[in-house]
Amino acid sequence: MSNKTIESSTLSFKEDGAPYCNRFNDIYFDSESGCVQSEYIFIEKNRIMQRLSTAKNNFCIAETGFGTGLNFLLTLQAYQKAQQLSKTVLVPLHYISVEKYPLTKSQLVKSLSILPQLHDFSTELATHYPEGEVIDFLPKLTASFLKNQVTLTLIFNDAEIGLSKVNSYKGIVDAWYLDGFSPAKNPDMWSKALFSQIGRLSTDQATLTTFTVAGSVKRQLREIGFRLEKQLAKGKKKEMFVAVMQSNPITTRGYQLRPRIIKPQHVSIIGGGIASACVAYKLTKQGIKVTLYCKDNTIAQGASSNSVAALYPLLHQQHDDISCFYQQAFWHARSLYDELNQLGFSFSHQWCGLLEVSYKEQLVKRQQAFEHLSSWPNNLIHGVNAKQASTLANIKLPFGGLFMPNAGWVSPPELVAQLFNAAKKTNRLKVINNTEITKIQQIKTTFNDKENTEESNSSSWLLSSKQGNFNASVLVICGGAEAITIEQLSNLPLNATRGQVSNMNTNSTINKLSTVLCHKGYLTPSNNQLHCIGATFQKNNTSTKANKDDDLHNLSTLAKCLPDLSQSIGWKTTDIAFSKARLRCTSQDHLPLVGAVPNISDHINTYPHLAKDKHWKYSEPSPCLDNLYVLLGLGARGLCSAPLAADILTAELCNTPYPVDNQMLFNLSPNRFIIRDIIKRKVRI
Ligand SMILES: Cc1cc2nc3c(=O)[nH]c(=O)nc-3n(C[C@H](O)[C@H](O)[C@H](O)COP(=O)(O)OP(=O)(O)OC[C@H]3O[C@@H](n4cnc5c(N)ncnc54)[C@H](O)[C@@H]3O)c2cc1C
Ligand SMILES: C[S@@+](CC[C@H](N)C(=O)[O-])C[C@H]1O[C@@H](n2cnc3c(N)ncnc32)[C@H](O)[C@@H]1O
Prior knowledge:
By secondary structure, this protein is α/β, with parallel strands linked by helices. Helix 9 (about 275-285) links the parallel strand 12 (about 265-270) and strand 13. Helix 4 (about 105-110) packs antiparallel against helix 5 (about 120-130) and helix 14 crosses helix 15. Flavin-adenine dinucleotide binds near residues 296, 306 and 584.
């Protein structure tokens, strides 16, 4: 069957050899920087090489506008490079492209001849490309490349019609190259129908990049469930959109859909610790003004006031939900803290590694399981024997353990102060101390948002304190364990767990300790001639007054787990320089709560059938309190989890791509508990 309706391209060449389309009055690619531009936006920004290397199943890329095939050739090159770097055979790649006005073979060959670096791939493409006039092209070309690892399906048709013929049960496209001349030059292509095909064919987390940054494209991409951000492009192209499919309205799990919000101009935060510092830093960086309300006379007086905290992830042998979050959070934290340091906001810290000592049989078995499964890369965690452990710690240890070479310790109050200093530098942060917010009240406001009725904000918050009342259009509660008494949070399963650390004077035995040691408690290397040992865990006690019993508990835990070391150090209570007790804000499942505060009764009314069938299909998004967000439940790893959690919240408020996938997002969502309770029939329906 020939393609009688197809029209050929109207090609000419610019003086520098760049192929030019007379029909749309634009070049296919720039002769000088076209390759670099396309490689940057399509290959790099869709993270094609990384994703090919880690993909478990077939990978699929789809493109609108095949043109000369440049993007396809760059993809072949990326596949080849990724294969060379990989120890295993990569998954097969399926590349689908739709072209309404094809070039003839000779036009294609001539266009690509100015790119000698792609010569071999161009020649191979040419051998498969149809001969003759385009009117005689079959509707579809299928060809294989790179030892049949890459399949090209080239559909000669209008993008929307061509894509509508592609079968998909749950979405098949992992990455989109949205090429095609701009809507100003080619309005017909950028139709609502095209976007609905893109939505239908996209997998969860599908990425999409395009040079076209028109407002209509932004709106349509958002409507079909992409979250996007404008970034700088390379070469003559100035800007681009980088998008991720994360809020697909065609979902059967509506309760995983988070409320959509237009990037606010101003955000109020209740806090003063590491959570609020990370959020304030990230939001002010995005151009948002922030007001912080802190009940103390200075910041970092809550759990983030310990002079030293260990920075390390919570890891299990397997890649379970908890470990996957903490692994990602750990690298995120390292990268934020290093960035801050490099910007000149320095704080006491040492990335000296952390050793989880296998001081009892159960832990030896655990270490063996880690080594046997080797689920994690060596630079995250690996087993060491007693000799290696002693060398790493620079003190004699009778046990081996699990070593995290990139972990270490940090001074939370200094770090928090520097994050706030960096945020203040933007002139967008105002800190109001000595102001405890005792109550918050929702104020309903109705206004018409001309541009975006669907996303209109309708509530603000009145914050009450002894110092007066304050209005907050958007409020984020980062108040740790002390904030969980706020009425609107009473249904969130958060607890306060008291902990005490003891700061010990150094001595000649222990001053050479060169890594953080973790046993049942922990012992940090010397900082300002002090070592931190800790910490106690006590529920149902919210006193922040340090006591002697807990100091003795910290010393005896060290003595029980590492008796020889404890004896040679010889610490007595008189060696305690000072102690501190504070409250951890803990969640039931050891993961933080990041996002909008759920309206519990509305959840029960909206998703009742989950009690009968947990797979019951709901498309309704999660009902939440307008403009009220939390970043809470950082538990005993706040230094590790706060930066990633803050980035998730920032993405939420700015409507940009989340740094985590949908499953992880739901694992952190404050409404996860009520959904689980409905499923487990723990609530009355
Ligand atoms: C003993 C102990 C040892 C720990 N060791 C480690 C460790 O080694 N590594 C690690 O990663 N984590 C550790 N943690 C946990 C870590 O300290 C916390 O996870 C983290 O500091 C929590 O930060 P945050 O910002 O959520 O809360 P916080 O640091 O408690 O900050 C909350 C802030 O909110 C303010 N606030 C609260 N309510 C209100 C209100 N109503 N109005 C105005 N202001 C309000 C408070 O004044 C405070 O400044 C430890 C915790 C404890 C207690
Ligand atoms: C900027 S060029 C693409 C460049 C191409 N990706 C390359 O590497 O050469 C845009 C392409 O979109 C094609 N096109 C325009 N409108 C289209 C439509 N409605 N459906 C499919 N393709 C279309 C044009 O013919 C052109 O080949």
